[in-house]
Amino acid sequence: MSADTRPPLNTERGFAGNDIPTDEDLYRCVHCGLCLSACPTYVELNVETESPRGRIALMKAVKEGRLGISNRIASHWELCLQCRACEAVCPSGVPFGRLMERTRSQILRHRKESWRLRLVKALFLRGALPHPARLKLGAALLRIYQQVGLRMLVQRSRILKLLPGKVAELEAGLPRFSGAFFGPTPRVFPAVGEAKMTVGLLSGCVMPLAQGPTMEATVRVLTRNGCNVAVPVGQGCCGALNLHSGDMEMARKMARRNIDVFLNAGVEKVVVASAGCGSTMKEYGDLLKDDPKYKEEAERFGSMTVDVTEFLVSLPFDRPQGEVRRRITYQDSCHLAHAQRITQAPRAILSSIPGLDFVEMENASRCCGAAGIYTITQREFSRRLLESKMESVASTGADTVATANPGCMIQLEVGLGLSGIPGRVCHVVDILDESYRRGE
After folding, report:
1. Which residues, including other chains, have CB under 8 Å from residue 363's CB and lie 6 or more apart?
2. Which residue in 243, 334, 399, 400 is deepest, having the highest Cβ count within 10 Å?
């Protein structure tokens, strides 16, 4: 077994400072074990400390002063995908996502991270995500790299073979920036026909750059269903990736910005096409519960936030008429199915589309391994989960995989490419939009 070369932790026992897992949350867990079969890491490894129950036991031991946060202890928490599948089956209502976010913040407090992880966080989580202009510039440079032939040249040369294997895999996992970028605008997109309401649309960070056409399809679908759509200027990243990495203060800063922008935009709902963003925004009230200025506004904002699929079904949406002759399967995004408990709305939309052959895949709600920056921090296990997911996709015979989260879309595209499975990946609204347009 190789030696642990990570920077040492301050192993002083107990948690310290702010954002400590609370007794109320920790001791809800009665160690019944119903979460075990839902947890991807436990199912794959069959190790107690890689289960929600085992991770909570370690949290309790640290909080009670029986253990310090050693590298070995931290590694069990860091392998967690934060998919929250355990929450969906927990009879005691343990808020595992909140526990893990606070525990990750404690790891940051105790340990100096490796230089590689510090670089990723400095350049991406803190250097780019909070700054839309920087993020757009980076995406533009990557698009040039991909579209002018540089990527093909690099992949055909021996350059990547001379570099560490991680570099080649990271390069293969880059999202494809093939469409036009989408972004906030002062203009309001008018409803088709009589307007039922005015909604705000989260543009966010990665999705308008990597999946700009999907954002445009979302606007068309919403206006088709009687909504004026505002995409307010000044909004930005929801803070989910920072929050899941333990950077609570940066996540709070991002949350305050979005609350200010949308509550001043005169919208009745905030519609989100990214499952991970939606689950985080719905929980802004918890994130800012100790902020006297924003506590009530955060709760109000959370109650206004809806995933695009649940919103369309609640209207209800106009039934599409255009035939889309494809065989399609659906991958549940973890933060839609487990955090928001929305599973039927996407399926209701897909099932409404004429000509579509919808086939359920096995373990559709099991994580694909994307999980934010997990593809970087836990590359090997992420790939292991992706390979398993591709087996499930292949067994359906589907030529299209639909999902509801940008990270899942990128991960599944990588999976199709690596496995050689022919097909495409799209968002649920892409298919609905296609049917609407064919029916015109």
Report:
1. 388, 389, 392
2. 334
Distance CA 440, CA 432 (A): 13
Contact criterion met (CB below 8 Å) for 216 and 248: no
Q: What is the pLDDT of residue 161?
A: 54
Q: For residue range 109-132, what is the model confidence (pLDDT) as tens digits?
A: 877 666 667 777 777 777 777 777
What lies within 8 Å, CB to CB, of 342 at 6+ separation is 307, 309, 310, 336
Beta strand 185-189 with 227-231: parallel, antiparallel or unpaired? antiparallel
Q: Which of 315, 307, 326 is nearest to 434 (CA)?
A: 326
pLDDT grade, residue 164 (50/70/90)?
very low
Contacts of 141 (CB under 8 A, 6+ apart): none
Q: What is the pLDDT of residues 53-70, one digit of tens each?
A: 999 999 999 999 898 888
Backbone phi and psi for residue 125, each to the nearest 5 degrees, phi listed first: -65, -40
Of 369, 423, 370, which Cα lies nearest the Cα of 393? 423
Strand 227-231, strand 305-307: pairing: unpaired
Residue % of the chain over a pLDDT of 70: 86
Say whether 40 sits in a helix, a strand or coil: helix
Whose structure tokens read 């893990």?
100
Phi/psi at 186 (5° precision): -70, -20
- SS3 assignment for 260-328: HHHHCCCCCEEEECCHHHHHHHHCHHHHCCCCCCCHHHHHHHHHHEEEHHHHHHHCCCCCCCCCCCCEE
